[in-house]
Amino acid sequence: MVSNQRAFENEALKKGFRVIAGIDEAGRGPLAGPVVSATVVLPDFFTDEGITDSKKLTPKKRNVLFDRIYDDAVSVGVGIVDVGEIDRINILQASLLSMAISVENLQLQPDFLLIDGIFPINSKIPQRPIPKGDSLSVSIAAASIIAKVTRDRIMADYNETYPDYGFSKHKGYPTVAHKAAIRQFGPCPIHRRTFKGVKEYLQAFHIS
Q: Which of 3, 47, 81, 88 is deepest in the core (most CB within 10 A)?
């Protein structure tokens, strides 16, 4: 995280906004499972220590910070878009949709949004997309942790239903072991059928 983790939040405050939320998603790259987004509104007293892009943290550290964010946040919203919708509208649109849903699921509606990435979402709330925002904004970084841990737990639950694929380990990402499982067992119901690495096996396993 950069030295001034609140630069974007402070800039919005100076412009007169009062409830500023950070948004990020997890799960654009996997071959299976939903895409999950989170929106987080942090209080002024929240300490930034340890908060950074979730990908830079160990699973243990993410879980500790997940609990701290939920304990201290003014509001947290989560949006989940399942594999059927991902295949129907494509992963980019599904990611943006999950972000919009996560905003709607906040108990306290923000008046300004900081969004990880380069795309705005479908919302009337003023917003600012920030490339690599999960490494530049504490609010977005907090959202990245909530989204990542939430999705990881969903995939661990799916591992109980579909134990042949190892979802609890790779969380649906295209690892060597995951791709080998798809070749051996074929795609399961939570695989993204429009994704390379999955769609090639639909016909061989008589999946329509």
A: 81
